[in-house]
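Our consortium's second objective concerns turning raw sequence data into structural hypotheses that experimental partners can test. To show how far this objective has progressed, the report includes one record in full. It was chosen at random from the queue rather than selected for favorable results. The single chain below, 200 residues long, was entered without modification.
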Amino acid sequence: MHIPKKGLRALGIAESYTGRSVSRLAGVVMRKDLRIDGFTFSTVTVGGMDATDSVLHMVQELERSDINVIMLSGCVIAWFNIMNPALINKETGIPVICVTYEDSEGIIEDIRHHFPVDTARISAYASLGERIPVELHTHQTIFIRVWGMDQRDAARLCSDFTLEGKIPEPLRVARLCARHVPPSLRDNPPAPWLPIKKNS
C-alpha cells in the first residue's frame, strides 16, 4: 500500500446506538485527500453477534475494488456485539484498523457479567488482542488494533485522515451519517452476505 497516495481510499464504519433492538451502521468511502465518494448502510442486532456479517455485507454492497483499508469505530458495538476484524480482513482481502479513543483495562468483566455462559462471545473479545496507543499529529492519542497491514502504516493513516481532535474523518463522517440513516433501515434486521471476491 502506497501510504502517501492522495487517492488512497478508506471505508470508515461507525454506528449510532439508540438502545432499540437494532443499531444503525453507516459506511463512508473517503479518499486520503478527504473527498467522499461512497456511502453504505446496514444494521446490527443489539446484544447479538452479527456485527461481522453486517460489515461484510456493507463491503459487498459497495461493489468496489478501490478500497484500500477498512476503519472500524470500535470492535465492540451495540451492547457487546463483537466484530471479528481478522475474518473481515480474510474475506475481503482489505486491511482493517479498529480505532478506539479512551484508555481502559478492557471490558472482559462486563461481558462475563452480562453474558456469563456465552463462551463464544468471551472468546471473540479475547481474540481481539491488545490495543496500541498512537499519537496523532493533533497531539491527541487514540488506540488501534490492526489486521493485514503494518502497525506503523496504520498509525500514519489514522493521523493523515484526522483533521482535528482524535477522530479520523472517515469515522467522524460515518458516525454523523449513522445518526441520520434512512428510515427504511432503522428497524430492519441485518442483511445476509455472500462470500466476497477478494481484491487482486
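The partners drew two points from this record. The chain has one domain: 9-185. The domain at 9-185 is CATH 3.30.2170.10 (archaeoglobus fulgidus dsm 4304 fold). Both points have been shared with the crystallography group to help prioritize constructs.
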